[in-house]
Structure formats: C-alpha cells, structure tokens
Amino acid sequence: xxxxxDKALFADEFTPDDLPFLANxxxxxxxxSRAATEWICGSDVIDSIGKHGTTVWIYRHCEADDSIVGFAxxxxxxxxxxxxxxxxxxxxxxxxxxxxxxxxxxxxSSHDFRYSNQIIEYLLGQAKRAAEQIREDKPPKKHVELxxxxxxxxxxxxxxxxxxxxxxxxxxxxxxxxxxMQLPLALDSPSRAMDL
Length: 196
Ligand SMILES: CC(C)(COP(=O)(O)OP(=O)(O)OC[C@H]1O[C@@H](n2cnc3c(N)ncnc32)[C@H](O)[C@@H]1OP(=O)(O)O)[C@@H](O)C(=O)NCCC(=O)NCCS
What we know:
By secondary structure, this protein is of the alpha+beta class.
C-alpha cells in the first residue's frame, strides 16, 4: 500500500467493473462506517445509480493504482418540500454516501492534501457543475440551489468535515438518529473543484 503523501488523488467515475477492486475497502467499524462500506461494495450503489441517477466517484492515489482510497456520490432528488415538512416544493442535490478507507482517516497531515478534504472539494465542484448544467437546461422552477446530506448524530468526524466546508445543520431535523445538513451552492462564485 502506498504511504499517505502530499499528492492529489486521482478521481474516476465508478462503474460496476470497479467492484472487484473495492473488495478490500473498509471504512471502519462504527455503524455509519459499515453502512458506507456496504453501500459501495454491495448492491446499494448499483440501485442508487439505476433508480436515482446517482453519480459515484472513486479515488485512487494515481490512475495505475488499483487500491482505493475512498469514494463519494451525488444525486438529484425529486420534488420535495424543503425544509421539511412544509417548506417550498423544490429539488435538491444530495450526497447519498461517501467514505474513506479507515487507513486514510486523518491522512496526510497537510490540510491541503488531506484525503477527506480532497474528496469533498472534488464533490463540491461536481455539485456546482451539475447545478449549473440544470440552470442551463431547465426552467427556473427546476433549478437546484442546495447541496444536502444526512449524517448520524454521533458521527462527529463526518460532521466536522462537512462543517469545515460550510454545511449547516437543518434546525429540528432528526430522522432515525440522522441529522440533515445543507450548503448553498453559490453558483456565481468560482468552483473550488480540483482540476482532475
Ligand atoms: C467522514 C470521513 C470521510 C472523514 O474523514 P477523516 O479523515 O476521518 O476526517 P478529518 O481527519 O479530515 O477530520 C475529521 C475531524 O473529526 C475529528 N475526529 C476524528 N475522529 C474523531 C472522533 N472519534 N471523535 C471526535 N472527533 C474526531 C478530527 O480531529 C477532525 O477534527 P478537526 O476538523 O477539528 O480537525 C471518514 O471519517 C469516513 O470515511 N468515515 C466513515 C464513513 C462515513 O462516516 N461517511 C459519512 C457518512 S454521512
């Protein structure tokens, strides 16, 4: 296994051909970490792509490296009321799941190259790009302005990561011990996506 280092990760769109390479991915022992591992290694990822048009990216140290550092995903919701239960009807971008192999948590020590930061910055860039595409293609009522997610109330590392990038908790939301977070996509400012 390559040692964590100050280097940009290589991001690639997931296809079912990647599943054999994911067999060794292990996001950790906590319930939410096992859920992340099971989501990407099992049938949920394929269901999410098929049913919701989710896009999934996997991250490696470099293109030629088969060992996977982590993954992230992005989906668009159907019409729903936001904030629930009686906000205005809209569509949102949504992060169904993301995770890092447990070996890479907190690595490398440099903030600029921290794998968790690289994964989320790439995802924010993709979310912004998706929202801009919708803005070009669709009428205003279909535009999306928020990136949202759910996180277990005890999953402090994930909450800290999201807060680092400006996500805020939705007040008074708690569904089966999961809190909701949201981030306005600031479509008029330059993207922070890595140039991968
Ligand atoms: C979420 C995840 C990608 C974050 O990556 P990471 O490398 O652990 O995160 P970072 O090191 O960048 O930062 C996490 C923060 O949590 C803190 N932290 C880490 N473990 C902690 C713990 N057990 N308790 C409290 N805080 C903790 C870190 O010190 C850091 O704090 P800081 O922002 O004050 O510096 C990773 O933990 C993961 O894959 N978890 C399993 C899957 C998962 O939870 N997915 C999200 C589903 S919503």
